[in-house]
Automatic annotation (TrEMBL):
Protein name in UniProt: Hydantoinase/oxoprolinase family protein
InterPro entries the UniProt entry points to: ATPase_NBD, Hydant_A_N, Hydantoinase_A, Oxoprolinase-like
PANTHER family: 5-OXOPROLINASE RELATED, HYPOTHETICAL 5-OXOPROLINASE (EUROFUNG)-RELATED
Pfam hit, one: Hydantoinase_A
Domain Hydantoinase/oxoprolinase N-terminal: 2-178
Leader sequence segment: none
Positions of the Hydantoinase A/oxoprolinase domain: 200-483
Organism: Herbiconiux moechotypicola
Transmembrane segments: none
Length: 677
């Protein structure tokens, strides 16, 4: 099995063969993203693999940076400004700011400029009736305008098309007739047949963009992997880290916009189950940001939508992830008063931190860790290149600040940890959990270097650094299942009189799903859920599980009760007297996949680990301190390391701070706690 997580800085590749784990990192290339993946696959012998699971942030980064192909939008006449309007929701910080504008609006960086959004004369009513027939002659004229503007793709989102898709289907045919088959087309009724026109429109636009970005990429990847001798199944991961065969993923590629953070959460849950941890805060510390998610009683929080930017909403199942701009590559800068700041800016992969020797001159958190002595300049990234200590020193010395040099370095490190700790606490508070009951799963290449120090700021139970933390998200791709689903929307108040209609919706979706999957679905159960709300609310409680059996006038009460239980679990309140309205209905089939095996080693009593050498820790404490360092691969179950100490491995470093103890667990994990003293 091979798992690949394509990030903005590095492409992480993991291979597992007969229980043996091999890993490699390849610098990501914006000009040739498939080349980095193929090179990593070649290094690890993809010809021996039967499964190749892929996740990428390529699409997400393209949207964030607006490196987008030219696409047009066809929508109901009078509604072409729906993309500019958004959901009319402002962030709290902008409530009283008259100059605030959406990042994707016409006054900023629109996904589709206004001249490429064309209104089509037609109108379908909310109950599926036809108020105005499609004006085909006018539609041809507007499509021809898009053709003269040179669009590469067209998104079609008509009002109420989730109820009746006839006009969208005909418009797609007209686009083919006028512009030819070389233009990609996405229609909302096939892409995201759900209520709420803005979210449906933004999702459809992202879908056609992703088709243009990924179709050639995926085809080339499949071809070149085959050229290396790979004849197995190529899967792409979606935003909840569910796996899809690559052809299936390209049918609705908005679902694969990003998957790395979700894969890390899945990986945390899988390892957590193996080591007996069911309540986990997950923190993926990369170069630019730290992505935080939560697992409660073994299950991650999955949402029915997510935001790329504020109010830029996508209708995709996604693991709930919160990010903060603090990572190994976060820039260290100076405030107007001369104080030290960290983030949210990042040095990225190019030029990278000053110590990389690639032209970077600004100091970063990685430079601070190098000057402190946590990082080994000769052993970074598996020894692929040596870090330049003097370049880091010059970068910190160049800061125009009255703060002394040692204090600059110490503050940079501690501020990065504080930013991460604050976001971890925010996630715990938002979900109403007691952080003292939770383990912090620390991964990403910089996770072990920074997050154990968060134990000094947060009353966490412990910090767990998993095996191969720098590639833990890629390992998560080898811990996921294939998940297929169907969804559709209809506003229905649940009661005995509506039970038969609801049951018919579920039976229809299940039949279509089983027909789509064919023999692979035989014998597999269907999971049913719905997104519902109390009548009068404008937002939904997602993924309310439907009890087994038909939905009947007698059983609809159990469905309503399941909603109130889910609502109370998420929000802490319960309103049994309010009627419940269903909005979106969902069926899914899980096809189990081969997974990483965390077979525990025999238990052993804790014993002091034998160090391999010593190094000097500078700037972090009042005086330089001599610390022991260890090689992680040499530590066996029960080995105990008392801080301050450094544990090195090929692609990551773990820093055990003063007053902390690290013990090697039975699955190779490092469990770091505060020392009893």
């Amino acid at each position: 099995m091979i798992g690949v997580d394509v990030g903005g800085t590095f492409t992480d590749v993991v291979s597992i063969t007969d229980g043996r784990v091999e890993v490699t990192k390849v610098p990501s290339s914006r000009r040739d993203p498939a080349g980095s993946v193929v090179e990593g696959a070649r290094r690890l012998g993809v010809d021996r693999s039967t499964v190749f699971n892929h996740a990428s942030t390529m699409g997400l980064n393209a949207v964030l940076e607006r490196r987008l192909p030219k696409v047009g939008l066809l929508t109901t006449d009078g509604f072409r400004d729906v993309l500019d309007r958004g959901s009319v929701h402002r962030p709290l910080s902008a409530q009283t700011d008259p100059s605030w504008r959406r990042s994707f609006g016409d006054a900023a960086r629109p996904l589709v400029p206004r001249y490429l959004r064309r209104g089509i004369v037609e109108r379908t009513t909310a109950d599926g009736g036809t108020l105005i027939e499609l004006d085909e002659e006018q539609a041809r004229h507007e499509i021809a305008v898009l053709g003269r503007c040179g669009v590469d793709g067209v998104a079609i989102c008509l009002l109420n098309a989730y109820v009746d898709d006839r006009h969208e289907l005909r418009l797609r045919e007209l686009v083919r007739e006028v512009l030819g088959d070389g233009v990609e087309v996405s229609i909302s009724s096939a892409t995201s047949p759900l209520a709420k026109e803005y979210e449906r429109a933004s999702t459809t636009v992202i879908d056609v963009v992703m088709k243009l970005l990924f179709t050639d990429y995926a085809g080339r990847l499949h071809s070149e992997l085959g050229g290396l001798g790979f004849g197995g199944q190529l899967n792409f991961a979606d935003c909840a880290a569910n796996l899809l065969p690559w052809e299936e993923a390209l049918d609705r590629p908005f679902r694969i916009l990003f998957a790395g953070p979700a894969a890390g959460t899945v990986s945390s849950g899988h390892l957590g189950a193996a080591i007996g941890r069911r309540d986990i805060l997950c923190a993926d510390v990369g170069g630019t940001s730290t992505d935080v998610s939560i697992i409660v009683d073994g299950a991650p929080f999955v949402q029915n939508t997510f935001e790329i930017e504020h109010d830029l909403i996508i209708n995709a199942l996604s693991t709930e992830v919160s990010s903060v701009g603090a990572g190994g590559g976060s820039l260290v800068t100076v405030s107007s008063s001369g104080g030290i700041l960290v983030g949210p800016g990042s040095a990225g992969a190019e030029p990278g931190p000053a110590c990389y020797g690639r032209g970077g001159t600004q100091p970063t958190v990685t430079d601070a860790a190098l000057l402190i002595g946590i990082l080994d300049p000769a052993g970074f990234a598996g020894g692929e290149f040596e870090l330049d200590v003097e370049a880091s020193r010059r970068a910190f010395e160049a800061l125009e600040s009255p703060v002394p040099f040692a204090e600059r370095v110490r503050t940079a490190y501690r501020l990065a940890v504080a930013h991460m700790a604050e976001e971890i606490l925010n996630v715990a508070v938002r979900h109403g959990v007691d952080i003292r009951d939770f383990s912090l799963m620390s991964y990403g290449a910089a996770g072990g270097m920074l997050l154990p120090s968060a134990l000094e700021l947060l009353p966490l139970r412990e910090v767990v650094v998993p095996p191969h933390p720098g590639l833990f998200s890629a390992i998560g791709l080898l811990s996921a299942d294939q998940v297929y689903y169907e969804a559709e929307s209809a506003y229905v108040v649940f009661g005995p009189e509506s039970a038969a209609g609801v049951d018919e919706v579920y039976r229809g979706m299940e039949q279509r799903l089983r027909e789509r999957l064919g023999p692979v679905a035989e014998g597999l159960p269907v999971r049913r859920s719905f997104d519902g709300r109390l009548v009068g609310q404008s937002w939904e409680t997602p993924f309310v599980q439907i009890p087994e059996g038909a939905v009947t006038a007698e059983s609809i009460g159990a469905v309503v009760g399941a909603f109130h239980d889910a609502y109370e679990a998420r929000n802490g309140n319960r309103f049994d007297a309010f009627p419940v309205e269903g909005v979106t209905y969902r069926v899914e089939i899980v096809v189990p996949s081969q997974k990483v095996d965390y077979t525990p080693a025999p238990a052993a009593e804790p014993f002091p680990a034998v160090p391999e050498g010593t190094s000097t820790l500078r700037h972090l404490l009042d005086e330089p301190v001599e610390v022991e360092w260890f090689t992680r691969s040499a530590l066996t179950v029960g080995a105990t390391v008392t801080g301050p100490a450094v544990i090195r491995e090929e692609l990551s470093t773990t820093f055990v701070a003063v007053g902390q103890t690290a013990v090697v667990g039975r699955s190779g994990e490092l469990v770091i706690t505060r020392s009893a003293s």
